[in-house]
Here is the input.
Amino acid sequence: MARKNEIMKKSLGIDYERFESGSIAFDYERMMRETGYSLEEIIKIQREANVGNTPLIELKNLTELARKVSPTGKAARIFIKDEACNPSGSFKERRASVSVYHAKKHGYKGVIAATSGNYGAAVASQAAMKGLKCIVVQEAYDSRGIGQPEILEKGRKCETFGAEVVQLTVGPELFYVNLMLLEETGYFNASLYTPFGIAGIETLGYEIANQVKERTGKFPDVVVVTHAGGGNLTGTARGLIKAGALDTKVYGVSVDLTGLHMASDTDFNRKSFTTGHTGFGIPFATWPDRADVPRNAARPLRYMDGYYLVKQGEVFYMTELLAQLEGLERGPAGNTSLAAAFSLAQQMENDQIIVVQETEYTGAGKNPTAQLTFAKQNGVQVLVGNPDEEVPGKNIILPEHPSMVKAREVKLDNLKKSYIRNCIQHFGMPNEEDIKFLAEDTKSSEDFVRRTIEELKNGGLV
Amino acid sequence: MAKKGDWVKIKQIVLEPHERAENIPEDTKKTPLTMWVKGILMEDAEIGQKAKIKTFTGRIVEGILVEENPRHIHDFGSPVPELIKAGMKAREILYGGEGNEQV
Here is the structure.
């Protein structure tokens, strides 16, 4: 593993040391500028790869339902960006298109991605389009050899596009296998967390801002983003800013899987969501540089205006309502932000606009019926009642009434403090430059950072 | 017996339990890290025996032959009446029940 940095450098072509300060701070914007592509270049790359320009759909019936059940009788207009229309069926193709373009341009013969999610299918699809070879490394099975239907479906899709799918049992050593494959093949590391990957999502925020403005005459008030590793939120927020939508609030949403351990063999098949959940959302917000690259280009706290949790049962429920009331069969994972939007809209005015920033394809394995059947087979009860009582791994509670769908707020300041603490634990006490960086990286102020450091010192936490 | 040229799936132990990472949960640590890969069989082999395959990317991988022409078995699952009823109820709230059929 001592060769890790060398393999990484070779498989990415980025020398991260150029942007380092030697302590906590690093030059994020310079990294994005010098290793990424401009928005104009990315729009061109994606157009040629049939990615983006997806429809923006107004969910009139769900908005009407929200108004019927809202305590004030009011609810914002809900729109959804139909990212399922990308070639492999998700927004992840925006990330993949830039990574695969970059790999091809620099003469790599193939690409490797470590992911059990839609990203694998996206990389496989883009690699197929560009004639590159592709390996997708999946955490797919528990020790009994039983796999989540959603992950198996994604494996099938990768294979359909001619990708080699390497399937593993549960465990973080997946990254060791990934590294060995990078060394063996010399392929490009299509990591989710490179500047290319994040820059690829900027077009999504950019399109949302412009489409909403064209349709309604103004920018959206709120954009809700399903949050896992942080790239979706970071890229979307950067795109909104580039379009001039400076007052639009960006909220992250994750499925609450509190209590389930992400690396546990027994917990693995007791969760119905493989992404967009707290098992990624919280650790990646509070320590983004845990990723498979030295400096993660996805830095959600830099852009997040709020963070909300929803329950598994609520997401399945909203997936059903999206199908039955709007005629759109999508998700469910992408509908995490839809569940939150349905609730948040009720705290807004009728003339305000809230945008659900993505949908994803569905089908065998991914459909809620497949996932709930699998949950039942693995000892998880499916009930109807109050989602507040849901216990991840034990039950899934579908709301009895639409008014019971709730976006539960997570205190952002606590996440910011936790991030600052992690930075200090890794690098030591911050200097003046670090304090300035931490203020930017947490969307707070130098004063907040200084107060947090004092608090942590007084509590004996650093 | 699987024949040379068949599309097959093999399995390989990557890490034995005692070789696994330190910082993982105890239940996971008791199990080997196992890997499955598919490809074209290079020589005739029996299920449960050693086999060599050529993958989609042209890599040669060795392992234990576990399946010939491996099928994707995931499906749509069983209908979930709780979900179906949730949709029906939402329509009722929105459109006002059976007496108020939306035209």
Observations:
- Chain B touches chain A through 45 residues (CB under 8 Å).
- Residues 8 and 68 of chain B are 5 Å apart (CA to CA).
